[in-house]
Amino acid sequence: MTRKPLPVLGLSLAVSLAAAAPAANATDIVVATVNNGHMIEMQKLTHFFEQANPDIHVKWVTLEEGVLRQRATTDIATQGGQFDVMTIGMYETPIWGKKGWLLEVKPDAAYDVDDLLPAIRSGLSSGGKLYAAPFYGESSMLMYRKDLADKAGVKFADRPTWDQVRDAAAKMNDPKAGVYGICLRGKPGWGDNMAFITTLVNAFGGQWFDMSWKPQLESKPWHDAVTFYVDMLKKSGPPGSSANSFNEILALYNEGKCGMWVDATIAASFITDPKQSRVADKVAFAQAPSQATTKGANWLWAWALAVPASTKNAAAAQKFVNWATSKAYIQLVAKEEGWAHVPTGTRASTYANPEFQKAAVFAAVEKSAIDSANPLDSTLPKSPYTGVQFATIPEFQSIGVTVGQQMSAALAGKETVDAALKASQVAADREMKKAGYYK
């Protein structure tokens, strides 16, 4: 966005500066967020919020995903009050809301809470109360290079199988030309590599815990899924996959180095942007692959803005949350950057907008993926937990981090799949016993 130059005359200059600067007695609110593209855009547009609310000044703490989770969890658990607004997700929100660590989101009528997609709204609620407002929502899907698929003679169904994807990856893989058949997350973290791996395990017919809350990490579906994952990335993935998360793979994809990528649907708006992607006009989409089942094959997530109960600036924080997650904000992004760049996955009105449908070639596949994800029924065998790519229990965060480290080590060749799964099972079993789920 271009801005008009300040007037040369002294008086006019002083007036302009006074109007642009935050009020002397402005309330400072600190917003902690993740370093994803839509959040960076939100920071750029915050001056619109401050102009409309000169009594509020927004300060940003922008962190890598894993670091953000650690900092936010520590701050909220200790009631540190370091942040007035936190970017959290569908895992933390219902747990923290139930504990009384978050303030209920109570927007006005103009906000139109009923416009929020039901699956997203439900996942950010506890006891019927909304505890975080969705900034963007996502599922996961298969994104692939149509030109490379055509060259390899590959055609994808609306929802291919993982076997078909593996075979296609081998055909597209051309390291000498700097193209790898498939790029997938490998960086350890319960919301990093484990978000992807859990959906893979679900598709292979597995689950985190059985109905007695016993961890299932040495079960056949886990063994088959993780072996499949490690073998496929070793044969058809880029070097150093064990260190790659969303942003690293996004960069690779935009440089034209990935034939396929299964990850967050939100990536679609970036890889189809000619300003960011060298292959923007060569991208096609399908649903996340299935295998033994379609249940839990694609995840459900929302990055949302929440106000911790420890804030001393609740009113100002809530006002910012309302602004950043409103219909008006989506319209603002559309005006400033174009409809292809708006945050998606949150509102029915976005998908109903003809301008968005025209600009976002991925819209139909994305919404279908979000609508198909069911946190209440995400595994082939019956499970005692809710959540698709995570289990909504406090213990999962620690377990997911530990298992993520083991899976990354297996991918890096530092240990065997069997050893990694055994160590994961031992750690998960110890954590669940300590928490009193069983003796």
Structure, explained:
- The chain has 18 helices and nine strands.
- It is of the alpha+beta class.
- The protein has two domains: 173 residues, Periplasmic binding protein-like II (D-Maltodextrin-Binding Protein, domain 2); 224 residues, Periplasmic binding protein-like II (D-Maltodextrin-Binding Protein, domain 2), CATH 3.40.190.10.
- Strands 1, 2, 3, 6, 7, 8 and 9 form a seven-stranded mixed β-sheet that branches. Strands 4-5 form a two-stranded antiparallel ribbon.
- Helix 8 packs across helix 9 and helix 17 runs antiparallel to helix 18.
- The longest helix is centred in the C-terminal third of the chain and has 18 residues.
- It is globular and about 60 Å long.
| SS-derived structural category | alpha+beta
Tell me the domain tally: 2
Distance from first to last alpha carbon: 60 Å
- Figure out the total of helices: 18
Give the proportion of residues in helices: 40-55%
Q: What's the pLDDT, averaged over the residues? A: 93
The CATH architecture category of the largest domain equals: 3-Layer(aba) Sandwich
Number of strands: 9
Oligomer: single chain
- N-to-C series of helices and strands: HEHEHEHHEEEHHHHHEHEEHHHHHHH
CATH superfamily of the largest domain: Periplasmic binding protein-like II
How much strand? 5-15%
For the report, how would you describe the main beta sheet?
7 strands, mixed
Specify the overall morphology.
Answer: globular
CATH top level assignment of the largest domain: Alpha Beta
Low-confidence stretches: 1-22
CATH topological fold name of the largest domain: D-Maltodextrin-Binding Protein, domain 2
